């Protein structure tokens, strides 16, 4: 099937990949609407990609080996142990990931979007009017444009998803991620080749080295925990719009800093507390599942379609895999209906499986943490396997294989 007009709403990781998929599928005219005014280069921080998932996406022509990355081999989980500088390891596991800077990943994908695609920065979609064989988009400047197919790549607060499923929204998981990047990487244990999870009652913090985008490295960290249920400390985040990432209240920051000072091994407390305030922000954690990835002439991709808690380390992988499935559906379908059916069949179940696994991980790693101080490697291995339903290899951690393992 080829030809037709396609709109992609959102020009981030999923949006660029969707535009690429549509171009390869043979769409006549492709327009990307991206709300942000300028390039998205500075957004976000570190992204980990499992080595095997990276290789599949490189072979599918969505990623290249040339993007700057930092290798990670192992993940060490450590708990505070008196004055021990790095704490006490409670367990370690293989961690075959490549660490990227979000900006270079986005730049690579943006660069791959063919020149013929009309990528419009600073263009917001404000309304969606589906009809029998197309969709009209209302734009922020008052214009309306109609397309044969609209792909929602507009993240967890998607306007396209809202038009498809008005009763489905991201639901707050009950805890937050506090994120930051620090330039202090000179003395990282094992030369920065390990990822570290610092554990404490009620959460953990993952830290790993990423490229800084200009030839050096930074330390990227994310601390997951449930803030105390007191006024101002645990704002109402049930509506995803109530606290956009970046609005960190002074009281919440103070609370988080005290938590780190009280529960982290000295070395890691120093790293977090020394992180410049301007590079720290919070991200409330959400779950999102949709009944189907498609409805009428609309399709969803990336975070607009499903959001699994980040413990899985696979959100970008899923977005890119969604795009490869869209491309395959395009190449094998005879009409729009077949295309959309094939895409939903390929990706809907994977999205749901990822959300379920990430919920189990969030439960074990944040909501109902074990007694870390009593844990050693055998207990750690059992605890990890329980989250993965007793299986390590086929769990989907880091993303499912495109070959369906
Ligand atoms: C704390 C945290 C850690 C993570 N760590 C990892 C990791 O290690 N590995 C990994 O693979 N993934 C990770 N992820 C997930 C990953 O960042 C995303 O899943 C992935 O980037 C896909 O995003 P997206 O393109 O679907 O959505 P987004 O990046 O949210 O992009 C949506 C785009 O749509 C635009 N937009 C929205 N509404 C409109 C509109 N109405 N009109 C026009 N434009 C609009 C926005 O401006 C935005 O650019 C993590 C996520 C979180 C929260």
TrEMBL record:
Name of the protein in its database record: FAD-dependent monooxygenase
GO MF annotation terms: monooxygenase activity
Region named Disordered: 385-405
Alphabetically ordered keywords of this record: Monooxygenase, Oxidoreductase
Superkingdom to which the source organism belongs: Bacteria
Residue span, FAD-binding domain: 5-167, 291-356
Pfam family, one: FAD_binding_3
């Amino acid at each position: 099937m080829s030809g037709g007009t396609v709109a992609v709403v959102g020009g981030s990781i999923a949006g660029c990949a969707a535009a690429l998929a549509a171009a390869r599928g043979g769409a006549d005219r492709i327009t990307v609407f991206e709300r942000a005014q300028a390039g998205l280069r500075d957004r976000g921080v570190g992204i980990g990609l499992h080595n095997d998932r990276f290789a599949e996406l490189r072979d599918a022509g969505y990623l290249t080996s040339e993007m700057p990355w930092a290798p990670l081999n192992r993940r060490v989980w450590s708990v505070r142990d008196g004055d021990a500088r790095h704490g006490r390891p409670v367990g370690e596991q293989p961690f075959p990931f490549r660490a990227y800077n979000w900006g270079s990943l986005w730049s690579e994908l943006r660069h791959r979007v063919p020149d013929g695609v009309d990528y419009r920065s600073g263009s917001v979609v404000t309304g969606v009017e589906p009809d029998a064989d197309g969709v009209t988009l209302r734009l922020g400047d008052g214009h309306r444009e109609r397309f044969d197919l609209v792909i929602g790549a507009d993240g967890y607060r998607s306007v396209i998803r809202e038009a498809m499923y008005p009763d489905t929204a991201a639901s707050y998981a009950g805890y937050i991620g506090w994120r930051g990047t620090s330039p202090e990487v000179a003395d990282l244990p094992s030369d920065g080749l390990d990822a570290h999870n610092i554990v404490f009652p009620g959460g953990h913090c993952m830290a790993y080295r990423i490229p800084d985008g200009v030839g050096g490295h930074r330390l990227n960290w994310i601390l997951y925990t449930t803030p105390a249920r007191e006024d101002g400390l645990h704002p109402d985040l049930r509506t995803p719009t109530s606290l956009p990432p970046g609005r960190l209240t002074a009281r919440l920051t103070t609370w988080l800093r005290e938590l780190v000072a009280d529960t982290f091994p000295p070395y890691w407390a120093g790293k977090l507390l020394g992180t410049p305030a301007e590079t720290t922000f919070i991200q409330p954690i959400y779950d999102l599942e949709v009944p189907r990835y498609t409805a009428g002439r609309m399709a969803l991709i990336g975070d607009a379609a499903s959001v699994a808690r980040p413990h899985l380390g696979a959100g970008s992988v899923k977005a890119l895999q969604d795009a490869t499935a869209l491309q395959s559906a395009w190449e094998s379908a005879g009409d729009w209906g077949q295309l959309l059916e094939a895409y939903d069949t390929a990706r809907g179940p994977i999205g749901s499986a990822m959300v379920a696994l990430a919920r189990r991980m969030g439960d074990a790693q944040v909501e109902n943490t074990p007694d870390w101080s009593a844990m050693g490697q055998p207990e750690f291995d059992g605890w990890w396997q329980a989250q993965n339903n007793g299986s390590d290899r086929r769990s989907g951690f880091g993303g499912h294989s495109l070959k369906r393992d």
